UniProtKB/TrEMBL annotation:
Protein name stated in the entry: Methyl-accepting chemotaxis protein
Pfam family, any one: MCPsignal
Keywords: Membrane, Transducer, Transmembrane, Transmembrane helix
Record's GO cellular component terms: membrane
Annotated family: Belongs to the methyl-accepting chemotaxis (MCP) protein family.
HAMP domain location: 225-277
Keyword Transmembrane helix: yes
Length: 540
């Protein structure tokens, strides 16, 4: 399995946060593009509003053109009906209407926003004001002639009204219409530019959203595929371990928590394999010792029978018993050494099993921390979803306000709609991340359960080791008993020369001891066979 300890660490939290970072970057870019487009649209809208206000004022100037001219014609008509002096008197209704209308016209001209005009429009406006000054100069002459009260003065004044007065009126009308057309053309151009800019900005936002979504989806698929592949490797190794196969090691090269878990699992598999190999070796030694002990007991039994049958042949019997006793002592010594080695191996196996349990517990804790991290990320996703919902609500409110604003709010309504769509897309992306985190938590729970099963298997192995240790202690007691019996047999062999009865008694005691030793050897052989059968269930 490739090692990951010397490689830069890139854990699951960093992988998930990288997806979120890409999404946030896309959101910032889209927001920047939207803000730029909104600022440009607002600037154009402000200019259009200013031009519309100016166009309305110019249209009012056109209305005053007709109004002022109409009042002049009216009081000129009064000069023919009620007399010229009465027509221009302060109490004359038509003359008073003319004065009021011309005053309102001056107020309008003085309040006009000239700074909004271009240089050409400013020059045209100056011509309009000059024409009005000329018109008022003609009107002053007309009023002076009417105040004379003579018929000649009246005829001259009427000529000025339909002559020079009308010429100025037509000049003012033409100039005012030209100024209105210039303002209208500029407003239409600004509207077209604003529409084009809005279209371009919309295309930029859509392109940024699509590219961002493609980046987030691609990154999510790549990371998800890698995590899934690593988790599948660990799961396969755990399933193989569950059926006793220790040869299936997880092939994971990632540097995240799953890579750490795979490395720990592989180390645990190697530790268990070494433990089982030690158990097999110990059982082989135990079986060999049992065979040697059986052979020794057979020899002792043969010696005892020979001693009982040939009690009369004291010298030969004593020699035979001496040889048999020496053989038994050697076998007992070998058996004692084997038992001590078995005890040492059994204790070592118990210690290794304890370490394996500790490794399994640590691995389960690491996976638990992975689950907690997934929960924390789920909380962050919920916050993102909440923000998307609030953004959607703000966009809806903005759409309503734009609708109330009528024609002036259409541009803002389009932006609000785009923000609303973006908020909805962010909410769906957050839900997709939440579903993927739920899958990771489910796989983590499965891994914890599998590690629990490993811990149970190791605990079972530990129990078997304790059983072996107990059997070894019993065998030690039996060996001590056998050594004592051999000592008694040696004493009896020393007394054979003095008393044949003592030889017979020692032979009987040897026969009993051999019977007990045979039973112990049988039990030891059965224990060794059971141990090999249990260990054989694992594939190393």
């Amino acid at each position: 399995m490739p090692t990951v300890k010397n490689r830069p660490r890139y854990d699951l939290r960093a992988k998930i946060l990288s997806v979120g970072a890409v999404g946030m970057l896309v959101a910032v870019l889209v927001a920047a593009a939207g803000w730029s487009g909104l600022s440009s649209s607002q600037s154009s809208s402000s200019q259009i509003v200013a031009l519309d206000t100016l166009r309305l004022q110019v249209a009012q100037i056109s209305r005053y053109n007709s109004d002022v001219s109409g009042w002049q014609v009216a009081y000129a008509w009064d000069a023919s009906t009620i007399g010229p002096q009465a027509a221009v008197a302060p109490d004359s209704a038509n003359r008073a209407g003319f004065v009021t209308s011309i005053g309102e016209l001056h107020t309008l001209l003085d309040g006009l926003d000239v700074e909004t005009m271009t240089d050409a429009e400013k020059a045209l406006f100056a011509e309009i004001t000059s024409s009005w000054d000329a018109f008022e100069a003609v009107d002053a002459q007309v009023v002076g002639l009417y105040e004379d009260g003579t018929e000649a003065s009246k005829v001259e004044a009427d000529g000025l009204v339909v002559g020079a007065g009308y010429e100025q009126y037509y000049a003012i009308t033409s100039q005012t219409a030209e100024l209105g057309e210039s303002l209208t053309d500029r407003a239409d151009t600004l509207q077209q530019d604003m529409t084009s800019a809005r279209t371009r900005n919309g295309a930029v936002v859509v392109a940024a959203v699509l590219l961002g979504l493609a980046a987030v989806v691609t990154l999510s698929l790549v990371l998800g595929r890698r995590v899934k592949r690593s988790a599948a490797e660990v799961n396969g190794a755990l399933e193989a371990l569950a059926v006793g196969d220790l040869t299936r090691t997880p092939q994971v090269a990632s540097t995240d928590e799953i890579g750490d878990m795979a490395a720990s699992l592989a180390e645990a598999q190697r530790s268990i394999a070494r433990l089982l190999a030690g158990v097999v070796g110990s059982s082989d030694v135990l079986a060999t010792a049992a065979q040697q002990l059986a052979s020794s007991s057979s020899q002792v039994a043969a010696g005892s029978e020979e001693t009982s049958a040939q009690a009369g042949v004291v010298a030969a019997a004593a020699e035979q018993v001496s040889r048999n006793v020496q053989t038994v002592a050697a076998g007992a010594e070998e058996m004692g050494a084997s038992i001590r080695e078995i005890a040492t191996n059994a204790n070592e196996a118990a210690r290794v099993a304890g370490q394996a349990v500790d490794f399994s517990t640590a691995t389960a804790a690491a996976i638990g921390e992975l689950g907690e991290s997934s929960k924390e990320i789920g909380s962050v996703v919920k916050v993102i979803t909440s923000i998307a919902e609030q953004t959607n609500l703000l966009a809806l409110n903005a759409t309503i306000e734009a609708a109330r604003a009528g024609e002036a709010g259409k541009g803002f309504a389009v932006v609000a709609s785009e923000v609303k769509d973006l908020a909805a897309e962010s909410g769906r992306a957050a839900e997709d991340i939440a579903r993927r985190i739920t899958q990771v938590q489910a796989q983590t729970t499965s891994a914890v359960a599998a590690i629990g099963e490993i811990s149970a298997i190791i605990a079972s192995i530990n129990d078997y080791q304790l059983t072996i240790a107990s059997a070894v202690e019993e065998q030690t007691a039996t060996t001590n008993e056998m050594s004592r019996s051999v000592t008694e047999a040696a004493t009896g062999a020393g007394e054979i020369a003095a008393n044949i009865t003592g030889v017979a008694s020692a032979a009987a005691e040897s026969t009993i001891t051999v019977g007990q030793m045979s039973e112990t050897v049988d039990e030891l052989a059965r224990t060794s066979a059971e141990l090999r059968t249990q260990v054989g269930s694992f594939t190393v």
